[in-house]
Structures are given as structure tokens and as C-alpha cells.
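Q: Joint fold for the lines below.
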Amino acid sequence: MFGAAGSVKHGLVRREAIASTREPVDGRAPAAEAPAAPARDVRQSLPRDVRQSLPRDVRQSLPRDVRQSLPRDVRQSPSRDAWLVKHPAEWRQIGIVVLYMGLLFSMYFVPWCRNPLFFGGACYFSFLNTVVIHNHLHAGIFKSRRLNLLWRGLLSFGALYPASANIPSHNLVHHHFDDDGQPDWASPEVVGFRWNLLNLIHFPNVAGPNTFSGVQRWAALAGRDDFRKQYTYENLFAFGVTGALMLFDFWSTLFFIVLPQLYGARCILRINLIQHDGCDTTSEWNHSRNFVGPAFNWIMCNNGYHTIHHNRAGVHWSVLHEAHDREVVPRIDPALEERSMIWYLLRTYVLTVWRPARRDVAAAERAAKTLSLSPREVRRAEAEAASA
Amino acid sequence: MLTREIMGALTLAILWVNALLIAAAALRSAGEHRRRLRTLREVSPNEGGTGLFQAQVDEGAGQDDGGRDSVLARYELEQLGRAGAPAKGRRTVHFGDRTFDGAVLGGVVVAGDTRVRVSAGEADVWPSRGAVSAAAACSGQAGFDRVFDEARKARGHARKITVDVRVGQTVWLGGELRKTTGGMELVPSAEVGLLVSAIDPRAWLRHASALAAGFALAEVLIAGAITALVLVPPVLDGWPSKLGGVLGLAFFLAVQPLGTAVRDAVRTPGKAFVRGRWIEPGGTPAKGTGALLAPPA
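A: Joint structure:
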């Protein structure tokens, strides 16, 4: 349906090929045709950031002392020996989705399971399913391209929206807070109630349609044929399976499948508000709010470390905390480092009535030592090339 | 146990919370337009004051395409064009909006027998939709080819859509009208700002306000009708109730994009999305919404 694996005719194949040679630190398997390693003296003479961008094969051939000077998240590239997946940590994501599907279908088929525990669990894991969508659309979980595309279908069913929508909406627009000069489709400014709790509840009603109309515009451009095919397949699968379940038992599907699906889809949209409201999206290190509790990040697959994820989108999620400690902590306003998301939500949307006033959160960044970071246009162009 | 009744009540509660929030957001837009409408009360150009008056452009300090000083105010929209997927075999360019700008370039307008000087500065300039569409349209095959060549590249084709308010044109002006030693002068006011419009702003604001409020009302009424259908006995068991459930889900999914469509439709003309698509001229035009087709060459 999507062309033979390995064919360079299709954009999705090109994407993987490009990514595997351009961004080896992101958890992708290296391409078979990786360039030959340069001579040792040449390699040693390279600047550190150039060495870091070398493909895994080349990096492995670096002298031991040079290799050890690289940060762990750069050194730690995907293991070729892992079965099925590119990185052993991906089994956690697979487990989340399997557990979520188990919760959904046990409620659907087994009346005894229709209780608050299962329902609450299904809603929470639906949200985690969208977190997996996010990670999977940055770096495919599986070694097999076909399996990655099929997995997107399952994830789409879990969220009742096509997972591939994340490529334009998240990877290309949200990561750079900009849609060719217009604001991010999920910018916190799309809601404007004074009563802040209403903003939290209402946000998906605006950010959702903004996102999907933006995705439609992006998909209408030349060279997006493979994206459109995949997007259609995911839509058909998500709505087809849900519709088929509805034909069999409408109310059970609506209550125990669709409600959790929509809960997750709406929560991942809300995360944009939670992680960016009151931040300075024009700054390089204070554009995002981070949630740094270790238990939270274990189950959320490190998605609490949002600043470093924006700035180094290629770094694998399993090592984000190390990069966060090294690069973000010295440059971020302490108010944007939250230990607990639950406490933040309670404090910001329940215990405080009005939307908090903005303040200069980027002062910490100006006081800290500058760190080399490609301009956003360059990062966006790289993401665009990887998604072409 | 989560019985069908409990889940039905929860589902209806979710539907209503969202329906009411979308209605509240639409009413907020309607309220903003009503407030602006109140500030644009009619003022007499002879007496001065803050508000709105109609006039004809007599002098313009800005230069038009021919180099003549005839432009009183200018609306500018920066767009980025990118090559689109072919439409029935014809090449296309899709445009996205970037920044909206408006400025008074300076000049004099005449209202009755009163001449009013308008000083240069930032302004809210409202062009007519027709003028913007005409300025955005493709000029022909040669123009399309030139734009397409750039649009297919990574950086795309950047362009500015410009609509001028020129000498001889009837306009509506809003701001503070005050008497000076040199005669009457229009300056920005804290309440109104400085508005130059090619269409009647009060009529537009009334229409936009009615559209947003009407949407809010209709949306709540539809939610009410769906709820009534769901509650037809046997509740959550019979076909009418099930039909209500299907319509409720469809309503929930559809009302959100409708709400944002209304929000976009009531953006003031100076900030209204234009976007659009060029389809290569020649042959039979392909169908498509928002297509800005070139006139036949």
C-alpha cells in the first residue's frame, strides 16, 4: 500500500533514510550505506559538535578517549542487537499501548470491568497513548518501516485522530512556535477567558480545529502524497474500527471506547497550554514549562522535560533528563521547573481563579553562559527535510 | 459499577460543558464587536469629537503604482506561497498569511464642505473583500510561472498584497476629530484608534456580532434538541435515544471546527485571513474552494 520498503521513490522512505544518516543520535538505526569512517587524525581534528553529528558507525570508530568525551545521550545510540525495536526503552511505550488497549477492550467486552478504576485507567492511558504518538512520530519505535506505519494506525485508533498529524502540527510548527510567520496552531493565546480554569477546559475546542485545518493546508502542498495516503489510512483505521464497534454495541462503544479516546486526544492538546502558558516563546531556554518529578517522567516517557525536547528534538526520549540537567537547568527560570504536574494544575487552575500575569522568565537565560544552538529556522528546515 | 445511566449523564455533561464554552467564546467575540460598534458613533466633521464619519479622499501623500501622490492609506498582507499538489493535472500555488499591516500615509478627506487632514501613522485599514481578492489574483500564465518557480523552493514565494485607499474613493474614518488652527484634523484616539475603512464599519460590526451571537444561540439550541432526543424513553435503549447519541457525537466533533470558523469569519477586515490558491491558468478551471483563478489570458 505504501510502496516497497527501501524504495527511494516515496517520501516516507526518504525521511527514514535522511534521518538515519543525518541524525544518528535520535534513536534510529544507522543506514546500511553509512559513509566510511574518516582517518583517525582527521576525526580527532574535528570540532566536538561535528563529531557528535557523525553517524553511529563513524562515531563508534572514534578513539575511545574522544568517544568518551561525548555526552551520554550522544554516545548512547540505538542497539542493533535489540529485537524488533530500535531502542530497548521502547518496550515501555509498547507496554503502555498494550495495557491501554487491554483496558478499553476489557470494558467493552466484560461488563464487570465497567467500573471507575478501569474507566479512569483507560482515560489516563489514553493520554499516555498520545504521548507515545508524540515520541513515535519523532523517532519510529520499530526497526521495520512497515511496522512503524502500522503502529501509527493502532495509535490513531487509540486517540481517534490520525497520528501522522503530529508531523506538521508538532514537529514542524509547534517545535518552532511558528507557521510561516503566523502563531503556532496550539499557541496558549488561542484562548482568552479571564477565569483560567475555562481556558484549560476550552483549549482543545480551539487548538484541535486549528491543528487539523493547518494539517489539511500542509498536506495540500506538493510532495506530500505519501503523507496523505498514510493520513487517510490512519483516519480510516481509527474511525473504521470505532464505527464497527459502534455497530455492534453503540452505547458501550460511546461510553467505554470513545470517551477515553477523546479524553487522551484533548489532554495532549491541553499539554500545549500547560507547558507554554506564561513562558516566553521567543527565548531559547525559557519557552517551556518542565515537570521534573522522576515517577511522573517514568510513566510519561520523559515528556516532562519539554525545553530540551524542543531544542534538541533528535535526542532520544530515554536520555532527555541528562541533557536537561546539563543544558537547561543553568538557563531556565526556576519557576518553569515544576516538580509535580498535579500540584501545578491545582495551583494554577483551581486554587487561582484568574489567569496569571506574564513576567520576564527569560532573565535567567540572559544571565547564563550562552550555548551553541542552531537558529530555529535551521532546526525547522532540518525537521522539514526529515519529514518531506 | 458505571451503569449506562451514569455514563449517559457524564457524556451529556461533557457535551454541555463544551457546547457552553464554545458559545461563551462566540459571545465574547460578539461582545467585543458590540463594544467597538458603540465607540464608532457618528460625529459631525464640522463639530469634531470621537467617532466615525464618512468622507471622500481628496488628497493622498502616498504614491500609487504610477508614482502619483494619491494614496491616503494602505493595507498590506504578507503571504508565503508554496507549490501545491496538482489539481486535475494543473500546477497550483497555495498561499498562507504571515503579517497584516495598515497605515495612513497622510492626506485630506472632504466630508460635505469640511476638509479634514489625516496625519500619517499606524492605522487599522479595512479594505473591501473584493479589492483584496483582486489584488491577490493571478495575473496570467507568465506571472504564475514566475511565482511557481519560487514557490517550489524550500523558502517559498514571499509576496505582499497591497490595497490602497486612493483619491476619489469614499471611505469611513474613525478616530478623534479635532479643530486646529489649520482646520479639522483626524488623530488616533484611545477609544477608537485610527480607522480607515473602504466598507461601512458599523454595518460590518453589526453583521459580525449577529453572526457570532447567532451561532452561539443556534449551537445551544441544537445541543438542547439532541439532549431531548437522547432522553426519549426508553432512555439509552430505544432507537430515538440512540439516534440522539449518534447526533450528539457528530455535534461534539463538528461544533469545534464550526466555532473556530465563526471566530475566523468575524476577524476584522484588516486582519481577516485571505490565504487562497492559484491554479495554473489555461484549460478548464479545476474546482476548488478559495481558488484565485487568473482571468483568461
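Q: Anything notable?
A: Chain A touches chain B through 40 residues (CB under 8 Å). The two ends of chain A are 19 Å apart (CA to CA).
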